[in-house]
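Subject: for your reference before the review

Hello V.,

The reviewers asked for a structural picture of the protein, and I figured it would be easier to keep everything in one thread rather than splitting it across files. Below is the amino acid sequence we used in the manuscript, unchanged from the supplementary table.
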Amino acid sequence: MAGNACGPGFSFGEKLRIATEAAVQEAWQRIGSGLGAAKPVAHGQDSTTFKALQTDDRNRKLLKSDSSEASKSFDVGPIKPSTSIYTDLVSARKRRSTRDSFSSSRAGAEACILVGETAITKDDRMSKQPRLAPPKKPTRGPSPVYQAISQWYEEISSRQKFARKDLESLKNLFRLIHECLNAPGKSAELDVALAKLRNRLHQAEFFDFLSGVLIKKPRLLEDGGLSVVFLEERNTFPWDIMSDSWTLYRRWLSGQLDPHLLVGIESKNKTTASGKAVKSRNLDREYQGCRSANCVGENELVNGQWWLVPQRFVRTPDRLIFADDRPLQICALRDGAHGEMEAGIHGQAGKGAYSVVMSSGGYSDIDNGENITYCGTASENTTPTAGTILLKESRDLHVPIRVLRSFALLASNQYRPAKGLRYDGLYDVVSSTILDEETAMHAFEMIRREGQDPLRYQGAERRPTDEHLVEYAKIRQLSGPRI
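And here is what came back from the structure prediction:
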């Protein structure tokens, strides 16, 4: 009967059940023989008991042979090594339900445990005791910031190698944050702690040793890390420290750990037909951090964000004279701040201007910080140029424009950055005036929108920071004077 039970007329579950019963029978026989309860009876003993044991032994052998055939028919091949550290985890609930399915009797339970131990001795790839899955951490109250972190951060392996001194540099940033939180309000101790934290944030922007595990170990992107600075409600941190913390948090969270100012930009040395050596720069198509500049608004920029401008120039008392070509705005193009390599106005027809760059160029611009007068471009006739039309459309559509200030502004301009380009927020075009009808030259009055952080042109919060200028000097030294 047992042999027929394992035939093709039965399902896999039934065959597995019969094979399991055979294994339980065999194990129970071994238990009984060890305890002396199932020894063969001698001549003269109870014949009924002896016949019962013989019948049980014959059935056991049949079941054993059929179970072997069933295991051959349903062989799934050798067990492959686990590819994940969580593959062989067994939850307590699953382990309990598996055990209960074999515990119809005390003998069945004991036999199941014995069979499990016997199988373990045959295959040392399995652990002797299944590891329990780690319990899920309960979530109480509002969801913390780090629960919405990127998949890149979640998949960071803690087994990556790192240098202890590098880890201590990031832990120091974490400690400085909490020193500010623990310092008495409006005290000299708090001022000293804030100054240290500000300086450390400026340095962290150019840490060149960062890796996934170094970001994750100090928990800077989790609750109690950088998010404490820009989400703290006691007004402990100044606006510039909050802004710098948010910048680092967002950059590291997205996995952008390369601090180089020219990251994502390809530089190539070329020789012109006349034999002159020139250097060309283009966006790296494989760089994942590039962003389109064709949109209205901040485009995820941060007030005071700064970019290097590759260019060799000579400064005169009233303006800059560029030695080779106009300054390249490729770094701002990469980050979606301004969509033109050289031109000062960027936008799309029918949608208005998206961004403008204030720079020297012979225009009658007036810069008063919060309000500016920005000139369009001169036309060869009375028809306005494309750039002028874009500014007029922004005026009519009432859409804001991103304003960037260049180091090429007059030295007398107090809002001019020391180097490069700086994003100074959103401005609205409120009016326009025709300066010259023959060239269709227009001047546009622009006012900075309220609710933005102050311009970062002076004081401890100024941009570029000292660290920016140091990095600029390093690149200039490596790349030559034309940078």
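For the response letter, the relevant points are probably these. The longest strand covers residues 421-436. Confidence is low (pLDDT under 50) at residues 1-8, 35-54, 61-148, 320-326.

Happy to draft the paragraph if you're swamped.

O.
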